[in-house]
Design brief:
Helices cover about 40% and strands about 15% of the residues. The chain has 13 helices and 13 strands. The structure holds pyridoxal-5'-phosphate.
């Protein structure tokens, strides 16, 4: 037997890990509604035409070589203008997944920690684990807004940064200006940089939101963004990191080396990202109004079903739903639900230290399909 490394055991991605179990049940004839992955494409949402045209044009112009490792110069310039930084502060990555990987590699040593919210996006957990960092979570209140007292308590001498995911995956929370200012003040007080995951920053359908990086002033922020969500094009695998504020020079030099060792990001997709950022952005308004309709169905159905509690999402397209009932844990709940034909993700994949049971679902389906998913959830809960 060829043994996998010990380190590899630290890697998990519960959002996709559930698919193997779902496929087995599907193969026995159960019709499945997949609500596990945050991908708009299977639900009929397409990237705007001008972005797809830009990909075609780039292919015709023969962008088939390796791009510069740090990114296409015109794209870096476009991002720099959008983010009010210099092109040298911008690095193009293969999805923000790679950007997160690079930032954690650049900033974590064994025994150090980057503060994460609980619940969190699971990639952060894996990155912290495989860098042999110490996992430190800050808590959130019942509406999933970061709890600043808890954040303060978790900062220690080994803390190197604070991660803020807003709008949030898995909760759909959109943080208030007051909370964001509180985080900025705390980071300033402890001289910590902020890692701002801004991947859903245009997907706010309830109220207004100014991303933290737009008013963080002197606190150093590295912001991550991507074509995946805001431009409905996750298959493009192109994203960026933009650094603002002082003190990043050594980290930027490290990020450059991390970019160099993996050579390049798809060049034609980088060309398309230029068109995406320059606009038009009409698709966002339409998409957000579709999300709001679906969110309202989600809220209504969760309120109607005994045993489910929801803090209504205001952005992104995820809900983190609390379950009360006889299930031993949320994994048992989610695996039981698979047999009814609904694929969700156990909350413990996002929040290993939470005692209550949660599951995460995406509310991207067409209204009829979303209703059908909730009919199945309701049936499942009544059976027990
Ligand atoms: C909060 C968050 N950050 C980062 C990513 C990674 O995005 P991508 O690698 O597609 O750019 C995702 C994907 O779902 C996400 O939800």
């Amino acid at each position: 037997m060829i043994e996998p490394s010990k380190r590899s055991e630290l890697v998990s991605y519960p959002i996709r890990d559930i698919v193997q179990a779902a496929k087995k049940i599907e193969a026995q004839g159960t019709d499945m509604i997949y609500l596990n992955i945050g991908d708009p494409a299977p639900f009929g949402f397409r990237p705007p035409k001008h972005i797809l045209d830009a990909v075609k044009e780039a292919l015709d112009q023969n962008y088939s070589g390796y791009a510069p490792s740090e990114g296409d110069p015109e794209l870096r310039k476009t991002v720099a203008e959008y983010e009010h930084v210099s092109p040298d502060d911008v690095f193009i990555t293969a999805g923000l997944s790679e950007g997160i990987d690079f930032v954690f590699q650049a900033m974590l040593d064994p025994g150090r920690n980057i503060l994460l919210p609980t619940p969190t996006y699971p990639l952060y957990l894996t990155k912290e684990r495989i860098s042999y960092g110490t996992i430190e979570f800050y808590g959130c209140d019942e509406n999933f807004e970061p709890d600043l007292d808890s954040m303060r308590k978790r900062i220690n001498e080994f803390t190197t940064a604070i991660t803020v995911i807003n709008p949030n995956n898995p909760t759909g929370a959109v943080y208030s200006r007051k909370t964001l200012q509180g985080i900025i003040d705390l980071a300033g007080e402890y001289k910590l940089p902020i890692i701002a995951d801004d991947v859903y920053d245009q997907m706010v359908f309830d109220g207004e939101m100014t991303p933290l990086r737009r008013f963080s002033k002197d606190v150093p922020v590295v912001s991550g963004n991507s074509m995946s969500k805001n431009y409905l094009y996750p298959g493009a695998r192109v994203a960026y990191l933009s650094f603002q504020g002082e003190g990043w020079d050594d980290i930027k030099e490290t990020i450059q080396r991390l970019c160099n060792q993996r050579l390049s990001v798809n060049w034609e997709m980088q060309r398309a990202y230029i068109s995406a950022i320059k606009g038009p952005h009409n698709h966002i308004k339409e998409f957000n109004s579709e999300l709001k309709k679906r969110r309202d169905i989600l809220v209504k159905r969760c309120n109607e079903i005994d045993g489910l509690t929801l803090a209504a999402p205001k952005g992104a397209f995820y809900a983190f739903v609390k379950v009360d009932g006889p299930w031993k844990n949320d994994t048992e709940f989610v695996h039981g639900l698979l047999k009814e034909g609904v694929v969700t993700v156990p909350g413990s994949g996002f929040a290993p230290t939470l005692n209550e049971k949660y599951f995460r679902l995406v509310f991207l389906p067409q209204p009829e399909q979303l209703e059908e998913a909730f009919n199945r959830i309701e049936r499942y809960m009544k059976k027990i």
